[in-house]
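note to self: dont lose this again. the chain is below, predicted strucutre after it. 135 aa total, dont forget to put it in the shared folder this time
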Amino acid sequence: MNNDRKTLESILCGKIEQSADRTAPGTNTVAGVEFVYYEDYETSGAASQFHTLLDSAGEIVASSGGIVSDSCRIVAPNGQRFRALSFHGDLDGWRAAVEAGARTLGVRLARIQGRHLMVSDGQSVLLSECNVDLG
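---
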């Protein structure tokens, strides 16, 4: 089985992440990829919230790349919940879209910086104090 994985990794030109090795997106830097967490109000499913965030952005002007949701959810000690997404390519364009959607919906954004979850309202929470559900 190990040889099969190595063959697949060779074909895909990258390492296949093992579930036991998975960490919260944004914990480790990935060249050309940006990770953002958006506030999750649990009013609808994750996919629906992701699409609502992007639909609320208005015109998306990103010229290349793409944006994807991730199954990871972080719950801060105060109960705030955040869902992960990542984007690549036109980082400025995708970042602007996410920020515009969050502004329109009135939701906070967060990022992992070092050992902290940094929330757009100025909060800084130790990641070790949060419940990280990798989904």
